[in-house]
Design a protein that fits this description.
The protein is an all-alpha fold. The protein has a single domain, classed as Up-down Bundle (de novo design (two linked rop proteins)). The chain is built from four helices and no strands. The longest helix has 28 residues. The N and C termini lie far apart (41 Å).
Length: 126
């Protein structure tokens, strides 16, 4: 019998948001290590690492929330950090155009995470 893994029907991305956000953070770190360092990119690198790794950290906190209010607040932070990561991807591509192709999948994953967290946030506010 074939063991089923937790994947979505039309994607190879896992349902497990804790793992997905951790992998995203790792990918952001790997991406940041490849960005050429100069006076413009150094602060951008710090920003993208902070926002990109914060998504998973806040999701872990949301998962352990003791109240619906705390859960919603942490999910809202996940949503904001994912959106912010998209912004920093854009700024890095502006500062280092050679990073465009490597930034695209990160930007796309940040977009998808933002949409997921927006949907979770909406569903918990009803």
């Amino acid at each position: 019998m074939t063991k089923l893994t937790p994947m979505s029907a039309n994607s190879d991305k896992p349902f497990d948001l804790e793992e997905r956000t951790a992998v995203f953070g790792e990918q952001v770190i790997d991406f940041a290590k490849e960005i050429p360092k100069n006076e413009v990119t150094k602060p951008l690198i710090s920003q993208i690492v902070r926002s990109g790794t914060s998504v998973g950290a806040n999701y872990v906190e949301a998962d352990d929330a003791v109240s619906n209010k705390e859960f919603r607040n942490k999910i809202a932070t996940c949503k904001k950090e994912a959106r912010e990561t998209k912004h920093w991807c854009r700024m890095i591509v502006r500062a280092a155009p050679e990073m465009r192709e490597k930034a695209k999948p990160l930007w796309q994953e940040a977009k998808e995470l933002h949409l997921i967290f927006a949907a979770i946030h909406r569903s918990r506010s009803e």
